[in-house]
Amino acid sequence: MRDAGWQWRDLPTGLVMIAPSALVLGAFLVYPLVKTVSLGRQRCNESATRCVTTGWDQYSDVWRSEEFQQALWVTGKFTLLVVPIGLALGIALAMLADRYLRGIGIFRAIFSSTVATSVAVASLMWFFLLQPDVGVIPNIGWVEDLFGVVKEPGLLRDPGTALTSVAMSSVWAGLGFTFILVTAGLQGIPADLHEAAAIDGAGGFRRFWSVTLPMLGPTLLFVVVVLTSRAFQAYGEIDLLTDGGPDPQQSTTTVTYLVYGDSSVVRSDAGLQATTAVWLFVILLVLAALQLRGFGRRVHYGD
Amino acid sequence: MATEHQGLEIDRVTGWRMAPRYALLVVVSVIVLFPVYTTVIASLKPGDKVLDNPLVPDSFTLDVLRNAWERGNLDRYLLNSAVVALVVTFMQVVTAVLSAYAFSFLRFPGRNVIFFAFLATLLIPIEATMVVNLQTIDSLGWKNSYQGLAVPFLATAFGTFLMRQVFLQLPRDMRDAATIDGVGHLGFLRHVAIPLVRPTIGAMALFAFLSTWNMYLWPVLVADEEEWRTVQSGLKQLAAAGIDEPNLIQAGTVIAAIPVAAVLLIFQRQLVRGLTAGAVKG
User: Fold this and answer.
1) For chain A: N or C, fewer Cβ within 10 A?
2) How wide is the angle at C-alpha A278 spanned by C-alphas B161 and A61, nearest 5°?
3) Fold adopted by A56-298
């Protein structure tokens, strides 16, 4: 930063100004992370009255446990549904609205509108879209005739469709966010690039693949990183739509839900909760690093 | 600077040539709004008519909305959410501005090390910290209180980082001139720096407000008494209470969604700024 030359007399002021932030970050992010790592070695009896420190092997025990492996598999499937579909739809909506037409502002507002729905609001909307007895879709006659599963047992209760249904609700809720970011990205692409490509005889699809997508690189990288970490931390939609079920496979119990869910097996044991939470942290860290490295190399940042 | 993308000249031709695109825009809009539409329709129908024609607003009443408002404790939930979101937003701005000032305008030894430590906390997902944070809040006696709901979120490294970025763009001479005029750090912040970076503060504040308002897991964990539920955890409660009266829950959902929708309508520009500013975080 600019010229060096540290000034000791700035030190007290500096520390005082940093103190409030440092205190909060230290007490509620750094300390709990360190504490969670050590808490992860502890195991309690059924009623949590007696706890023993079992050692680091609890980390490998949890990792190898059937519940964790199942949750990891569910989380992976959930992420692979939410991220690519959410990204593709967000790009499609942004391309569709990226024209200076009369009234385009209204359509942009509509496409952005799902940012106004919190996870609870979005999930309840979808709940009453899909709920077999009182939901909208299962009570449309021809849908019911065509796809029996919407009524019996219901999309959210069938082990084969529950996760996909939760994912669709998540995709919908995240659509506004992706749309807004991709739209901003599109507006940053200089018009002369498109014009030059058009003059060179590139058609619409060619321009999309060779100009638009590469120029959107940094935006898309950011969206993918955010959507992935959100998918891994998804909790509200699972809590409200499926409670981690349907049983017995726990088809929608993701890693985050495994830590905190009402019906989760580790919920009552802080030690096991901590171990699982640490694994969640490690996985997210590795994923972010992989995405930034692998994807980052291919991203074109312009000049 | 990239010139604003104006679209190809040909796009400006309006009229019938654009009809297919308008048709497509309308169809997609209907699909995107479908969940909202069905929820609003259900909240406006009398309870016994909900299942008759779920897609057609053939009967209309405000009773369900009124009923949800009275029975659901929604006023209390909304108050709690508003208090927590406003306090967190205000404090996040204050803590971010103060620390960013120290990280940009002051040059004390150790500054860069501390700044990198701040940045490193961006890697910690809050979901990994809540088990212990819950114990901390419990031992402070802050379960079911505004402190418990708000205090863990009063500062973010992201806010500090964002504010530092804009402070670094202000000319250093300004600070020197202010020093010569005998203006102190806080005076400089209040009268010079903050007014100059107001748009960024606005974007950051809106982002903070929305993320706090929409928080789900923490309020569910930290407040289990009716009095201290936020809108989000309150909706969970409402949904658990009465599946036999579906449109009551849908009315509650509508009421819960209105404040954020209103805030976003007013602050549209800040929203785009706030979200794209996040792209720096990547």
Assistant:
1) C
2) 165
3) MetI-like fold (1.10.3720)
